[in-house]
C-alpha cells in the first residue's frame, strides 16, 4: 500500500522503516530536513507538504509532538485535509489530548476523511523492533480495515472504543508510568539516606509485588545516574497536562498526577526538561540532599 507519514522524530523514523520493511511504499514529510533525508536514505520518497503527501496516498499516518502540531498538520494551510479527498484515511499515532482527537476527526469527517487515533507505548527501542503497543480509537470497521498496517509497527494492537479512546488509554498509561517512576525515586532516596544500598534493594524487591517493567527500566538508570533520554521530562509534562485537563473535564480528580507534574515542572525550571523521565530522581536529590546514584 502507498502510505503517507508525517513526523519523523525519535519514534516516526523507525516506524517508517518498519512500514518499508513490510513492503509498503512510504511518502514522508517533516519540517526538519535531516529527518526527511534519513527516511529517504532508508527507501522512502518525500513530499513537499502534508497536503502534497495526502494527495498521493490513500492513507496518512501522523506522529507529531502534541495537539497543536497535529491540528496544524491536518487542518492548517497546506495541511492533510487540503490534499485529501473523500474516502481517504488518517491515523494519528501521536500522543495528544482526546478532545483534540475528537475535534480533528470532526474536521476530517466534514471532508469525508475517516480517522483513527492510535497512540503507542514502548518508546524508541520498541519502535525500532516493531513491537510497540498500539491503542486505537475510532470506528471499529475502520480499525479492522487498517489493523494489519498497525501490526507492522506493533506487536500488540488493541481497539479501545470511539474516537479519542486511544489517547484516553495512553493518558492512563502515562499516569501509571509517571507515578511508578516517582515512587521508585522516592523509595530509593529513602533507603540511600537510611544507609542501605539502592542496588541491593532493587535486587531484593524486583521479583516481588513492587516489581514492574518501569522499575526494571528506570531503577538501573537512577542507580547509574544516567538520565540520557529515552522519554523526555518535557514530553511527559505534556502528557500529564493533557491527563489533568481530561480528568478535570470529566470530573475525575488526579491528585497524584498533579503532584508528579509539579515535580517535573521543577525539573524543567532547573534545565532538566530534556533529561529522561527517570530524572525524577534529581527532584528527590534536590529536596533530600542525597543522590540515589553516582
Ligand atoms: P520528536 O520530537 O522526536 O519528533 C516529532 C517530529 O515531528 C519532529 O521530527 C518534528 O520536526 C516533527 N514536526 C513537528 N511539527 C511539525 C510540522 N508542523 N510538520 C511536520 N513535522 C513536524 O517526538 P517523538 O519522541 O518522536 O514523539 C512523537 C509522539 O510520540 C509524541 O506525541 C510522543 O509523546 C509520543 N511518544 C513518544 C515516545 C518516546 O519514547 N519518544 C514513546 C511513546 C509515544
From TrEMBL:
Is-annotated flag, keyword ATP-binding? no
Superkingdom as given in the UniProt entry:
Bacteria
Residues forming the catalytic site: 170
Tell me the ranges covered by the 6-phosphogluconate dehydrogenase NADP-binding domain, including all copies.
2-161
**Alphabetical list of Pfam families matching this protein:** NAD_binding_11 (PF14833), NAD_binding_2 (PF03446)
Q: What broad class of enzyme is this?
A: oxidoreductase
GO MF annotation list: 2-hydroxy-3-oxopropionate reductase activity; NAD binding; NADP binding
Q: A GO term (biological process) for this protein?
A: glyoxylate metabolic process
Q: What is this protein called?
A: 2-hydroxy-3-oxopropionate reductase
Query: Which organism is this entry from?
Result: Breznakiella homolactica
From the UniProt record, report the name of the gene that encodes this protein: garR
Amino acid at each position: 500500500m502507498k502510505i503517507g507519514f508525517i513526523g519523523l522524530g525519535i519514534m516516526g523514523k523507525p516506524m517508517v522503516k518498519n512500514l518499508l520493511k513490510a513492503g509498503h511504499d512510504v511518502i514522508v514529510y517533516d519540517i526538519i530536513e535531516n529527518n526527511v533525508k534519513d527516511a529517504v536514505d532508508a527507501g522512502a520518497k518525500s513530499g513537499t507538504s502534508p497536503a502534497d503527501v495526502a494527495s498521493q496516498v490513500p492513507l496518512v499516518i501522523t506522529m507529531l509532538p502534541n495537539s497543536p502540531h497535529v491540528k496544524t498538520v491536518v487542518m492548517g494551510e497546506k495541511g492533510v485535509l487540503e490534499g485529501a479527498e473523500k474516502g481517504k484515511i488518517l491515523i494519528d499515532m501521536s500522543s495528544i489530548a482526546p478532545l483534540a482527537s475528537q475535534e480533528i476527526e470532526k474536521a476530517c469527517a466534514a471532508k469525508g476523511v475517516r480517522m483513527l487515533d492510535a497512540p503507542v507505548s514502548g518508546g524508541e527501542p520498541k519502535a525500532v523492533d516493531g513491537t510497540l503497543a498500539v491503542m486505537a480509537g475510532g470506528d471499529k470497521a475502520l480499525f479492522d480495515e487498517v489493523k494489519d498496517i498497525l501490526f507492522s509497527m506493533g506487536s500488540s494492537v488493541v481497539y479501545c472504543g470511539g474516537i479519542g479512546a486511544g489517547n484516553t488509554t495512553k493518558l492512563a498509561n502515562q499516569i501509571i508510568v509517571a507515578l511508578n517512576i516517582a515512587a521508585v525515586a522516592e523509595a530509593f532516596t529513602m533507603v540511600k539516606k537510611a544507609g542501605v544500598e539502592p542496588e541491593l534493594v532493587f535486587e531484593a524487591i524486583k521479583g516481588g509485588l513492587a516489581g514492574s517493567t518501569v522499575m526494571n527500566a528506570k531503577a538501573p538508570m537512577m542507580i547509574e545516574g544516567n538520565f540520557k533520554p529515552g522519554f523526555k521530562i518535557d514530553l511527559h509534562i505534556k502528557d500529564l497536562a493533557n491527563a489533568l485537563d481530561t480528568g478535570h473535564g470529566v470530573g475525575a480528580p488526579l491528585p497524584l498526577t498533579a503532584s508528579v507534574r509539579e515535580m517535573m515542572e521543577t525539573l524543567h525550571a532547573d534545565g532538566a526538561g530534556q533529561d529522561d523521565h527517570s530524572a525524577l530522581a534529581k527532584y528527590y536529590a534536590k529536596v533530600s540532599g542525597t543522590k540515589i546514584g553516582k
